[in-house]
Amino acid sequence: MTEQSAPEISPPRAAGDVPRERRCLRCSTVFWSEGFGERICRRCKGLKAWQSALSGPVSSRRR
């Protein structure tokens, strides 16, 4: 038998989840987005305020 590589199978995307230009939710600049989950432009993601929010303390609601 010959060894064949399995074809790459990507998960199906939702109808609206297509790469296209979108408006940044933070600064309203139009930028290229790979899908509807990407709504903040690279410039805004590079800001210290954005980065510190990502690495900041996480509050828990344990009681």
Architecture overview:
This protein is an alpha+beta fold and 63 residues long. 19% of the residues lie in helices and 13% in strands. It has helices at residues 42-45, 48-55, and strands at 20-23, 30-33. A two-stranded antiparallel ribbon has the order 1-2. It is extended and about 45 Å long. 2% of the residues are buried.
Report the strand count. Answer: 2
Tell me, briefly, the overall form: extended
Query: How large is the radius of gyration?
Result: 19 Å
Compressed to H and E, one letter per element, the order equals EEHH
Indicate the structural class. alpha+beta
> What's the main sheet like?
2 strands, antiparallel
Low-confidence stretches: none
Strand content: 5-15%
Count of DSSP H/I helices: 2
Strand order of the largest sheet: 1-2
* Distance, first to last CA: 60 Å
- Mean pLDDT score, rounded? 82
User: Approximately how much helix is present in the residues?
Assistant: 10-25%
Q: Which labels suit this protein?
A:
63 residues, 2 strands, two-stranded antiparallel sheet
